[in-house]
Amino acid sequence: VQLQASGGGLAQAGASLRLSCAASGQTFSAGFMGWFRQSPGEEREFVAAITRWSVGSTFYADSVKGRFTISTDKSKNTIFLQMNDLKREDTAVYYCAASSRIISSQIGVPSSYGHWGQGTQVTVSS
Known about the structure:
Structural class: mainly beta
Low-confidence stretches: none
Strand content: over 45%
Radius of gyration: 13 Å
Order of helices and strands: EEEEEEEEEEE
Number of helices: 0
Shape: globular
């Protein structure tokens, strides 16, 4: 599975951005897709994840609940991360990731994902 992330940029605090991640290749194996972020000197942090099949269950980090929304398009080969009410602490490189199967307790663990996109920078200014 190849993942291509896009949509990052510079935004003011309180504004919105939408990230996209397009999956190609053996997309049938990407049952779970999600977003992580990483700031300089910090570990990669879980943001949100979605199951691409069935009912499309979603999962969020506490820090983004109520502000960020993860979704898929009709083909389920592209996922989106709608980020509203951005805060300075949301500044990071955002990575999309995919995995064929994940135990629910491990959804927020980076090593659970075998496929990663190249990352897109999100910078929030005050």
